[in-house]
Amino acid sequence: MILSTFFFSTGLEKIALGRVGVLLLAGGQGTRLGVDYPKGMYNVGLPSQKTLYQIQAERIRRLEEMAAQRFNGIQGNGIAWYIMTSEHTKEPTLEFFAKHNYFGLKKENLVVFEQGMLPCFTFDGKIILDSKSKIAKSPDGNGGLYRALREKKILDDVERRGIEYLHVYCVDNILVKLADPIFMGYAIDKGADCAAKTVEKSQPEEAVGVVCRVDGKYQVVEYSEITLETAEKRNQDGRLTFSAGNICNHFFTTSFLRDIIDNQEHSLKHHIAKKKIPTVDELGNRFTPKAPNGIKMEKFVFDVFQFSKKFVVWDVVREEEFSPLKNADGAAKDTPTSARHDLYSLHERYLRAAGGIFIDKSNTIIPPLTNGVNGTNGHEANNNDIEKCGLKRPEVIICEISPLVSYAGEGLAELVAGKKLQQPFLLRANEEH
């Protein structure tokens, strides 16, 4: 706890000084979600009806506010937010932020830029046509970031602003802590030039890569590249040997990125992804195949870990920081429903820790979902355990805390301690009423 407080203060001071920026990887459209617009514009179905972009923008605003309050003698320029889009998502993203007045952020602190595109190929190496007169192309992967940082002069802008540290993350994690002061402070304190947040893999087959060391160098080995036998290896305590699940949540120093784009980017290898790529038939009619018909070439953002001189890992609790939104409802996991429920559960824990009391419509207290009901050991249980004690509770309590009110559970006691809260419960900032 003492160390976390120290790291938090270190990270927050750098934010106050304007030394921290955030960089969002947002090149994908919400195809698997069933929408044809950027995933960041997706309304997850929360009581507030906020989109992923709005939630993240407001977390940045709250951090800026916290930094200004803690270090009120420091006059920084706020947190610069860089958003890497693709050919298909750049203009909609720009229009969306302009329409919503940048969600209260400084317009000059939002920098939207486009990653590169690469041709798509058939399995025998021929270029695929998107139409009679157009080659099929796809974004060059989140590792295309480094090429874009150079060609779009983005790193030049980062350096011009005096930013020394960047937090890089993916758009689809509803629980992401942008520029998390604890993570940033930890990496800074350790003198790291590169760092990664990880979660413990839930099972050997979980579709996340693992952060590990290969031949003395750190890297992420993708789940598709690990044999089942290796993935199932366990230590004597029963935990997976390769358990550090990569969640695309990274720290980089600006100087490290400068070395990457000037000296290393050209050596990064392309990875092959087999995909269903829309194309044309012999008559020129466009169609989407039912099975993979070609490959997309892409680089991965984590491929630069190998060049780090001081790499550190910060392992986090999945339920607090990782809930990706990838698929439409009806899929087995990573859906809007699972994302909402994970956010509700986190916010319920925040509110209970602050002294809030949840009640149902009959004014009966709803117990927390923990063994022994009173939460003495903190392990999650199921509804059956609670009902044995003569109590009932809904599967999930619908509650949402605006990021403008609290970044990670702080400052809630004065608002909810000893108060009865009935679901659906939405805690808004004054400006939102």
TrEMBL record:
It comes from the Eukaryota. Coiled coil: none annotated. SUPFAM superfamilies: Nucleotide-diphospho-sugar transferases (SSF53448). Belongs to the UDPGP type 1 family. It catalyses: N-acetyl-alpha-D-glucosamine 1-phosphate + UTP + H(+) = UDP-N-acetyl-alpha-D-glucosamine + diphosphate. Keywords: Nucleotidyltransferase, Transferase. One of its GO terms (molecular function) is UDP-N-acetylglucosamine diphosphorylase activity. One of its GO terms (biological process) is UDP-N-acetylglucosamine biosynthetic process. It comes from Cloeon dipterum. Pathway: Nucleotide-sugar biosynthesis; UDP-N-acetyl-alpha-D-glucosamine biosynthesis; UDP-N-acetyl-alpha-D-glucosamine from N-acetyl-alpha-D-glucosamine 1-phosphate: step 1/1. Pfam families: UDPGP (PF01704). The keyword Magnesium does not apply. It is an enzyme of class 2 (transferase). This is UDP-N-acetylglucosamine diphosphorylase.
